[in-house]
Amino acid sequence: MLVPTWLRKLLTVDDAVLNEQFTLIDQPGQPGPGDAQSGNADVGGANTQGERGDAPGGEGTEDQQQAADRGRGREGAGEGRDRQQNGLITRPFTKPVSIREFIVQNEHRYESETEAHSTQEDPVFPDLDRSLHRVQELFHLPENKDIVIREFRIGTESRWRAFVVFIDGLTDRNTTNLAVLQPLMLLSSLPEVEPARRIETVLDVLLPGNQVQPAKTWPDVVSGILAGSTALFVDGSDTALLVETKGWEHRTVGLPQVETVVRGPKEAFTELFRANTALVRSFLRSEHLVTEMFKVGRLGQTDVAVMYIKGIANPRLVDEVKRRIESIEVDYLPDSGLFEQFIEDSPKHILPQVFSTERPDRIAHLLTEGHVAIFVGNSPFALAVPVVFWTLMHTPEDAYLRYPFGSFLRIIRWIALLVALLLPGFYVALTNYHPEMIPTDLMLAIAGSREMVPFPVIMEVLMMEFAIELIREAGIRIPSVIGPTIGIVGALIIGQAAVQAGIVSPLLVIVIATTSLASFAIPNYNLGMGVRILRFIFLLAAAVFGFYGMALMFWIVLARLSVQKSFGVPLLAPVSPSMGASRDVILRGPAYVMNERPTYLQPFKRWRQNPETRPWSVKTRPVDKDPSGRRGGKR
Amino acid sequence: MQMVQNKARVGGKELTAAMTLLVASHTFLIYPQYASRYGLEASWMAPIEGAIVSLVLFLLLDALIFRFFPGQDLIEIAQTALGTFGGVLVALLLALYFLFVTASVLREFVENVLTTVLPSTPILVATLLFMMAVGYFAYLGLEGIVRTAFFTLPILLVGVLGLCLLTMNWWHPILLFPILGSGIPALTLLGLRTCSLFTNVLLLSIIYKHAHDPHELRRVGINSTLLAALVLSAFLLTYHMVFAEQSAVNISFPFYQLARLIYIGRFIQRMESIFVFLWVAAALIVMAVLIWGAAYVLSVGLRWSTFRPGVPALTLLCLAVGLIPASVTHAIQFDYRVFLPWGWTMNFVFPILVVLVARMRTPGRAHRRRRVA
Amino acid sequence: MLKFIISILFIPLPVFIYTLSFARWMHGRGQRVGAYSAGVLAVVTAVFAVVVLYRLSF
């Protein structure tokens, strides 16, 4: 009889029934893995029974197997000491270690290892073999396949032993070949010098790399290699040379994705730390522009650059930024978005206190005002501190257009902010609590459109808001191949079908659509997020207490904002507390009269341009109230 | 969160805004009715007269403080001259005064809200909600309050002046005659009683140390007094141009009645709900300033380490006191019988008295201090 | 009655406890006047609040 394979498989019992999936957590009350293993061992296809017994977890599996192998493999490198002391290897059938204990034991090892990596007094050995051994140990060779160690001899006749270490993929192949290996191996004829001074010769005459840095300690060497440099060790020298050979794959400088403009530069930061700082420098060519570097992270270090203009930015601000950066204690800092949370004043607050942008021109401009810019690793968003609320509502285009247009755009945006924040709440309050405010015709229209709708207004609004939020979120997460579909589906469901089915009223669709349009007009993404959430709070306040609730909520939010500080500067400065400032806060003033830097930053130079910026024009000449004082003020 | 503790530092402009609001908010309360009742057609003169008297007294107080006790606030003056006990006494009196004023403002305000926009809400719920917001404001401290006040003042000015102008089609200037209303003696008395509204002076003598520049005290006092008097006067003027005095004296919530009247075409009409934003904002600021003031004088007088933990209790106390009167009529009686006729003694007589007594008790010290200063 | 008890639980009680702990805190810092006055404030507030709630509930 012909039985299909799948059916036969379904009806036969074989070893597969014993197969269990890998679990990282051991179950409490599990008998010792020693006896549990014997059953499991045949199934897993393990190599040796003894090894299986070693595995500490309840389920002896391949991962743990590998861990055990690794332990053995490293014995030579002094890695397997702990395990040996615990008798894990020598005595196969002892009481097993629970995974928790296993973790605790290894945690200590991890800590001591990272400690060892970061100790400053850990000099490079003159003995080449020891150095080679140390490199292998530090980078966990031979398991680690990314690290390339190339041993060779320098020079055509004298033949000093040497090796280079670099990470495959992080370095530029051509540079390593042509600027490091080739000159050393083929093009050099050397005088015989004492071994300790060989490295100087190499540095002075043999290496044509444009950035070569001697490193005397292992931590320096390691971080150099990890940053894409090629490390060169020469026999007999207690110094390694780090040749700059960075050249990993990255996105080129492209168009801004979030902060687009019609008029103005169209470059955005990219995922390359150095390219980002250079972009700012290319906009702002000043020798006073200072970039200070920090490294954050114990496990993987992330470069953090603090950029400011010396002589303008207040040094107390710069010091505070540095203090906050230096006190960050994390294993790994992947992006400026996370970094923000480590340095901002109140991370729990719903509105951002750090300005993030992807536009180098924006950063350049903020720097000239006296802000401090921060670049975090390979994040394509740079940060600027301190930030005031008003800056979050500006776009660079306001400045690039002529000022009446800039002001117009800002007015639109301020209205958009209010609409995005309050309109749904306003609608709910109006229809529920204050219908007398609506002119009679309009009220009849609203009532007519709501006649078919079976839900209370707040229900209706919440449903629609949820749908819109869904479209927003899905629109971002959706694979771009099927992206265009979402618009059609969303528009159809919300625009047409929901109304026709009598689930929502057409007027509400207009309200919600306007709100979501308005929320897209908010230029800062973080602020937009905050507004999205606040909108729901206002909606609830309006649903429960009408205008009364909304008004209370509005002033509470405002009061909370007014005591919030960003790096010592009140978030609502310079409006409240009112400080003297140029007219670049709520509206945009003419470029030729905005002569002073914002005072809330306490910059060292108050004037950024001569009060008389258009001396040839009689019309725009400033009215000099106190000529001597004005001139004197240009310190 | 950056905590704003006892050493808040605020700018003169924001302080002016808060102090102006403190007085101008009486536009929404019972004062217009009171003024109409005693001043009839000429009630709009009362705020101006009150402001002038207040300014004279304020300048006197200011001069006294700067002459004899420069750099000290009222409680500290009482403490240095009258000892801890004197300080406690003055602080308690002030705190009680602030509490009662807050409670009366609270009750009138909430009754207004309930009758106008939330007719079916229980009074406890509306009051509690409001007091929670007030408590939060006061808890944030002076900086938060005055900075918010700085945003609120323009809205209040636009709102009140807008209200005055939007009722233009109802104006009947003839209703303002006879120009002297209830006659000069009655008007004078009303003007003096209007001084009770100018709590800003008393509060300023306590908090002026928190200004960036304490010498701004005088300017803040003058500006806020004049601005507030202007608002009150403009409102009363409009009110009396719209309503004849027979009806004017009987309207319990003049601001609301005026707002209801707005009818500029079909579309701009019945704006009173919009004014809820205005009332809420002004009332929040006023009561927060007063509660903060009460907590602050207690913390200085009773030597608390900080004013902050006292705020919830004071807020709750204020809520309880505000809810004691059985009805709004009883609540208004407090204003009619106590606050408006006698508030000026607390506002002016009391601080001047404290300073004078302190001066008499410490002649030598004050002189020395002056020379040092 | 239930309304009364619930409103007491939610309004004056937390404030009372908070203010008492404020008084204790100041007592711990050796500020006797402050501690006593805060204690008195707590009691006065609680009494007023309870009386008002009682009147509103019945």
Structure, explained:
The complex is a heterotrimer of chains A (635), B (373) and C (58). Chain A is of the alpha+beta class. Chain A folds into four domains: 48-113, no CATH class; 128-243, no CATH class; 273-387, no CATH class; 414-570, no CATH class. Helices cover 46% and strands 10% of the residues of chain A. Chain A has helices spanning 5-11, 33-44, 49-54, 62-73, 81-85, 99-118, 128-138, 173-185, 198-206, 218-226, 273-283, 315-326, 336-343, 360-369, 389-392, 396-400, 403-432, 440-450, 457-477, 483-500, 506-520, 525-563, 627-632, and strands at 147-154, 160-167, 212-215, 230-234, 240-243, 289-296, 302-309, 355-357, 372-376, 382-385, 565-566, 569-570. In chain A, the strands form three sheets. Chain A has a five-stranded antiparallel beta sheet with strand order 1-2-4-5-3, sandwiched between helices. In chain A, strands 6-7-9-10-8 form a five-stranded antiparallel beta sheet, sandwiched between helices. In chain A, strands 11-12 form a two-stranded antiparallel ribbon. In chain A, strand 6 (289-296) and strand 7 (302-309) form a beta hairpin. The longest helix of chain A has 39 residues, at 525-563. Residues 29-85 and 626-635 of chain A have low confidence and may be disordered. Chain B has 373 residues and is an all-alpha fold. Chain B has a single domain, classed as Amino acid/polyamine transporter I (Up-down Bundle). Helix content of chain B is 74%, strand content 1%. Chain B is built from 15 helices and two strands. In chain B, strand 1 and strand 2 (268-269) form a beta hairpin. By secondary structure, chain C is mostly helical. Chain C has one domain (14-57). Chain C is built from three helices and no strands. Chain C has helices at residues 2-10, 12-28, 32-57. Chain C is elongated, with a radius of gyration of 13 Å. The termini of chain C are close together. The model of chain C has no long low-confidence stretch (mean pLDDT 89). Classes of the chains: A alpha+beta (635), B mainly alpha (373), C mainly alpha (58). Chains A and B meet through helix 22 of A and helix 5, helix 6 and helix 12 of B.
